[in-house]
Amino acid sequence: MGKEGEEGLNIQIDVDGVLADFVKGFYDTARYYIPDLPMVTTYDQQDWHNWVGIPENIQNIVWKEIKESKVWWYKLDPLPTLKERNTLSQLDYTDGLNMYFVTSRPGDYAKFLTERWIRTYIPIEHPTVIVAKHKAAISKVLYIDYSIEDNGQNAESIGLTMKHREHSYLIDRPYNTRLPWQVTRVKTIGEFLEKIPR
């Protein structure tokens, strides 16, 4: 697997919505300006980037804070269970397996904070973090064998770059269930990890 003629298995893992609770972090930050906002997490969010109860001017302020902060990305809560995080950590020690954490996070500190977050919560000592808007292009260059995303469009486009399209997985979230994406669905990252051959 991996690049033709080479051994190894290449895994691409999205961060926000798969590993980290971006939605909760966004609402928590907005609550500073709108104290009576409800608690909303990734498991509650019904529409992709539709911030119910947060007017556009406050959304813009929150995004500005996110992009400029030296700590924001590090403060997000993990989504996987402790068992799932331990499985990810153990997977990193598998011979011939390359794990890439690919995210489109904005901000000058996004890569550094993502690496620090993964070291803390997974934990993986030297995570390979790639910040990129076009995840399918990364998948194609890295000859990805297995991928997991929470964004249906990303998962579908990544699948088109893979030798086995069915190895592009979409983790179930309320905001990605309305369209019949041409991908394989899983309920948890633990279910995805069970698909990866050891």
Report on the biggest sheet: 6 strands, parallel
Strand % is 5-15%
Q: What value does the average pLDDT take?
A: 95
| CATH architecture descriptor of the largest domain | 3-Layer(aba) Sandwich
CATH superfamily of the largest domain: HAD superfamily/HAD-like
Helical segment count: 7
Strand order of the largest sheet: 3-2-1-4-5-6
- What is the N-to-C order of secondary-structure elements (H for helix, E for strand)? EHHHEHEHEHEEH
Domain count: the total is: 2
Radius of gyration based on Cα positions: 17 Å
Through-space gap between termini: 12 Å
**Derived structural class:** alpha/beta
Q: What CATH first level of the largest domain would be assigned?
A: Alpha Beta
The helix fraction, in percent, is 25-40%
Beta strands, count: 6
Low-confidence stretches: none
**CATH topology (level 3) name of the largest domain:** Rossmann fold
Instruction: Characterize the overall form.
Output: globular
Structural overview:
By secondary structure, this protein is an alpha/beta fold. The protein folds into two domains: 9-21 and 76-195, HAD superfamily/HAD-like (Rossmann fold, 3-Layer(aba) Sandwich), CATH 3.40.50; 22-75, no CATH class. 34% of the residues lie in helices and 14% in strands. It has seven helices and six strands, in the order βαααβαβαβαββα. The chain has helices at residues 22-30, 56-68, 82-91, 110-121, 135-142, 152-159, 189-195; strands at residues 9-14, 97-103, 128-131, 146-149, 168-171, 184-186. A six-stranded parallel beta sheet has the order 3-2-1-4-5-6. Strand 4 (146-149), helix 6 (152-159) and strand 5 form a beta-alpha-beta unit. Helix 5 runs parallel beside helix 6 (152-159). The mean pLDDT is 95.
